[in-house]
Amino acid sequence: MDVDAYLRRLGITDPGRPSVSALRTLHKAHVERIPYEALDIQLGRITSIDPHDSAARITELGRGGYCYHLNGALSLLLQELGYEVVWHRAGVQTPGEETPGSQRANHLGLTVRNLPSPESPSGDWLVDAGLGDGIHGPLPLRNGEYREGPFRFRLRPSETDPGGWRFDHDPGGSFAGIDFAPEPATLADFTDRHVYLSTSPESGFVRTCVVQRRDADGVDTMRGCTLLRTGDSTPRTINDQAEWFAALADIFDLAPTDLTQPDRDALWQRVRATHEAWQATRSA
User: From which residue to which does the signal peptide run (predicted)?
Assistant: First the structure.
């Protein structure tokens, strides 16, 4: 992996030796500069989630990804920089859904170990750059409530995964929470679910194009043709293809250089058609 190219994408010259402060800087830069996106799924493509390929997406193509890409690539970068990183099977719970537990494996969870501090005497930290509107910086892996910008989070022992952890999102977030299994996971734990999320008509990634970027004060979200900022009660609708791609570049730092003009045309046509179908259901 090209560590220097990755750090340039994050805007970091020298990350320093492993420390809580350095981890926090790396994490915040990652969620601020590498967007949460699944454009390839909208184009009917199944991408690689090998962490080396995911890192290359970020450094060579100006892309982001969803949890398997983002957390996979981040874990590789952190390991290269000397951090002890562990993968975990995790299950995301959507609002109103029964708690699924980690067996669903629709999320790749990460922890970093052996970084003790007053905040985390055990040295364990929850790290996650693949949640879209999730955490801005790493959280100490201990029972407690945490506030970041407009969001309040809670970490507690999981009720579905003994020995694991539960992350409760803010009520205003895009999902209810996540349960993490305690044991280490491997790439094989996520490959089947990645195919499902990339192809099934039931997958939210197939149904709707969503792009997000987190910062200290909130989240920018493009859902279909609707652009919204955390706390803004007036969403903006984008009806022009050039304006839509300009918003991806300007607001989300997403310039997908690997997409040809026919790719861009096909993507916009799908996004626009889905948006119009959604509008029709609201006015029916």
Answer: none
> What's residue 232's pLDDT?
79
- Nearest alpha-carbon partner for 224 in 284, 148, 177, 282: 282
The range of the structural domain enclosing residue 252 comes to: 194-276
Q: Phi/psi zone of residue 44: left (φ > 0), alpha (ψ -120 to 50 degrees), beta? A: left
Query: Which of 179, 196, 201 is closest to 109 using CA atoms?
Result: 179
Alpha-helix runs per DSSP H in 48-190:
51-60, 67-80
Q: Determine, yes or no, domain membership for 90.
A: no
Residues 178-195: tens digit of each pLDDT: 999 999 999 999 999 999
User: Which two three-digit tokens encode residue 83?
Assistant: 């951090």
Where residue 211 sits, what CATH number does that domain have? 3.30.2140.10
- Give domain status of residue 256, yes or no: yes
CA angle 214, 219, 224 (to 5 degrees): 110
Would you state the pLDDT for residue 233? Answer: 72
Instruction: State the total domains in the chain.
Output: 1
Q: How far apart are CA 111 and CA 89, in angstroms?
A: 11
Report pLDDT for 283: 65
Is residue 209 assigned to a domain?
Answer: yes
Ranges of the chain whose pLDDT falls below 50: none
- The reported pTM is 0.95
Residue 240 within a domain: yes
